[in-house]
Design a protein that fits this description.
heterodimer, A: 309 residues, mainly alpha, disordered C terminus, B: Rossmann fold, 2 domains, 8-stranded mixed sheet, 6-stranded mixed sheet, 13 helices
């Protein structure tokens, strides 16, 4: 057993899991609290990456780029809620799907008009482009930064939801909308803020990943399906569930890609193992989801108290 | 039935209006299927620019016929590519169907074109099936068979004394062809191979695979990541610090589509990296000089190999029409003319094998900075002369 490789892969899994969490947290909040299915959540991820790339090219600073991306996506999220989404809360889930699918097309086309079909690349500063070496163990510095940022964002979100007044209102609004309104809370504004926070988290994930994969049109659509799997596995509306499910899926996906072919080679010929491993590892997370749906249809950490309309 | 005057008048008007069209019906229609949306759209745009430049260089006419090119977007999906091909063949009734970046899209679409008795010209994809058992008298290519460039790369690896190799390719038809190509000629040991997820939810974070490749202790890393995936890969390869311990050998990954992005991101690590290809912007042929110069003047960047193949596609069709004097009604004459490849190709002269794939040179290309400081690829050596793909023997034409 190669321990260096195993630790590297666990860190890679953690990094993927935290990115998925940033996407899934907003998706889960919006889905759980407002009962709104947002297929276009991945578009916020793309907008974050593209805006961040442009700001980084202008200022040369990744920090300013990240701040600008988060603020921009927060504003875009609030605008989308105000213009489109708030009219749909009382409508059917099918309407949500249709409208937000349309939004994906709109976002992709607008991004294509502004940034062109090639998207944009982000240059990393020297320090982040390097690696951290401890003995034989090597990990790219930027991946550690993603892990740190992901953990920070998770902690911040935990604090926001469980310890702050806004979080209290969010949880209360989810439990009983009418009562919260009767107590004089502006529930429409609350929903707008939740939607925008969810979007901003996705935008933050976008700017984090962009220096690795570049920012390009449709990048959100590549990851949104997996983010939905996280939401379903974790339990709809539960931020805690999204956190654990995202990490679980990050580890399963990464370890599947790393070790499945070796495992399969134990009882298959080399050639069939080589063919079967990629197919099987692509399916692993969906197999997990199917298993969870059979055993615990509410998800691993279903959000108790959330009334489903 | 008695027709009212206005209807008769309208009928006459309609007949008059259609007259000029009938009088100038002498035109050749070319359908061109490529990817214009999705992140891969950047490739399709390059091809479209090259097709338009080729038509312009011909003065918009082939053997006296007006040229009409209908571009269709395959959405990076085989099923959409097939639908668009159906439309070109059945509704637009084009004379030639060309284009196709992706092997899986071409394989899904080829039957429609060939069953309708039309000519199919691949401007990029070269799946082994169409080169071998499923070859067809009306299928031509201005590119290569998928295995050829990686076969040349295997040869380069042998020459450089590489003994152990790690392979990473996307999990689809062309990716598998690329892997089998390099495995066919590489004489050392393949110590690991990853087929990564591709298509709509393709994988762009290669952390797990790169960690495996590092741990494998291989002396070289062979990759094939076309389009924007290549940029993502090279960045992560560089960030993982593999340049000094695991040299990179690529095919169809480092080209003039990705190089400006690398330069923008100041990734000096890609300078000097090597790939194998049938063409390079600095190949010294008159047609190539004109093509590269005018493409650069128009679009500001070097043309990619996709563009070169698309430019040749138009000129191949032109050569066939010149040979028949603009007669589109005789497919046998058109086919016989195309088999001669009698035109000024940007790659220099080549000929067709019996499966209608080019028998051509393959070069080792190196990434360099040109006189203006722009990054481009330049021919470093000739790996194969007049190389034929290894599936031609399976073709019974």
């Amino acid at each position: 057993m190669d321990w260096h490789l195993l630790i590297s892969q666990l860190l890679n899994g953690l990094q993927l899991g935290l990115l998925l969490f940033l996407l899934a947290a907003g998706l889960s909040l919006i889905f759980g609290i407002m009962d709104f299915i947002n297929l276009s959540h991945g578009s916020f991820y793309m907008v974050g990456a593209l805006v961040g790339a442009s700001v980084a090219a202008l200022t040369g600073s990744l920090l300013i780029a990240a701040l600008a991306a988060v603020v921009a996506v927060f504003v875009v999220g609030a605008a989308v809620e105000w213009l489109v989404v708030c009219r749909l809360y009382n409508k059917d889930h099918l309407d949500h799907v249709l409208v937000t699918y349309g939004l994906i097309l709109v976002f992709d086309s607008v991004a294509r008009m502004i940034w062109g079909p090639a998207g944009a690349a982000i240059a990393l500063p020297e320090a982040l482009n390097g690696r951290i070496e401890i003995g034989d163990f090597v990990i790219p510095a930027y991946r550690l930064l993603i892990i740190a940022c992901g953990l920070l964002a998770a902690a911040g979100l935990y604090f926001l939801v469980t310890r702050s007044r806004l979080g209290m209102l969010i949880r209360a609004g989810a439990s009983n909308r009418v009562m919260v309104t009767a107590l004089g809370v502006n529930i429409d504004r609350l929903y707008r803020i939740v939607f925008a926070i969810g979007a901003a988290l996705a935008g933050f994930a976008g700017i984090l990943i962009a220096p690795l994969t570049e920012a390009h049109i449709g990048m959100g659509n590549e990851i949104i399906i997996i983010a939905f799997v996280v939401v379903i596995v974790g339990g709809i509306g539960s931020v805690k569930g999204a956190f654990y499910a995202a990490l679980l899926i990050g580890f399963i996906d990464t370890l599947g890609r790393s070790y499945l072919d070796d495992v399969l080679k134990l009882f298959l010929s080399n050639q069939s193992a080589e063919t079967a491993a990629p197919a099987l590892s692509a399916m692993l997370v969906y197999i997990l989801m199917a298993g969870v749906l059979v055993c615990k249809p509410q998800g691993l950490f279903s959000a108790a108290g959330f009334n489903r309309r | 039935m008695k027709l009212s005057k206005p209807i008769i008048a309208a009928g006459i008007l309609a007949a008059l209006a259609s007259l000029p069209a009938a009088a100038f019906a002498e035109r050749v229609k070319i359908g061109f299927v490529t990817t214009l949306t999705t992140p891969a759209g950047v490739i399709g745009e390059d091809m479209m620019n090259a097709v338009n430049l080729a038509v312009e260089h011909l003065g918009g006419r082939m053997a006296g016929l007006d040229v009409e090119v209908l571009f269709e977007d395959d959405n990076f999906k085989p099923e959409v590519g097939k639908q668009k091909t159906d439309k070109l063949v059945k509704r637009d009734d084009v004379d030639f169907v060309a284009g196709y970046i992706w092997s899986n899209v071409l394989l899904a679409s080829s039957k429609t074109v060939l069953d309708a008795g039309k000519f199919l010209i691949s401007s990029n994809a070269g799946p082994s099936q169409l080169a071998g058992k499923s070859c067809h008298r009306n299928f031509f290519s201005t590119s290569w068979q998928n295995d050829q460039a990686p076969e040349a790369m295997g040869e380069v690896l042998n020459q450089q004394g590489v003994k152990t190799l790690y392979i990473m390719v996307p999990n689809y038809a062309a990716g598998k062809n690329m892997a089998s190509g390099v495995e066919r000629t590489f004489q050392g040991e393949v110590v690991g191979k990853d087929l990564t997820k591709w298509g709509k939810d393709r994988q762009l974070d290669f952390s797990a695979e790169l960690a495996k490749a590092r741990a494998s202790g291989a002396e070289g890393l062979f990759i094939f990541y076309p389009g924007s995936a290549g940029g993502a890969f090279i960045k992560q390869y560089q960030q993982a610090g593999l340049r000094d311990i695991l040299p990179l050998y690529s095919v169809f990954t480092v080209d003039s589509i990705s190089l400006p992005r690398f330069q923008e991101a100041r990734m000096e690590g890609v300078l000097g990296s090597k790939s194998t290809m049938f063409w390079a912007p600095d190949l010294d042929y008159p047609a190539n000089r004109r093509f590269v110069r005018d493409f650069k003047a128009r679009h500001g960047t070097y043309p990619s190999f996709y563009a070169a193949q698309s430019y040749d596609t138009i000129n191949l069709i032109d050569s066939a029409l010149r040979a028949t004097g603009g007669d589109l009604s005789d497919p046998d004459a058109l086919r016989a003319a195309m088999r001669k490849a009698d035109y000024e190709s940007v790659r220099g002269p080549y000929r067709y094998g019996r499966n209608h794939l080019p028998i051509q040179n393959f070069y080792l290309r190196e990434v360099v900075a040109d006189a203006d400081g722009d990054w481009t690829t330049s021919v470093a050596a000739t790996v194969y002369e007049d190389h034929q793909d290894s599936y031609a023997g399976e073709c019974n034409l």
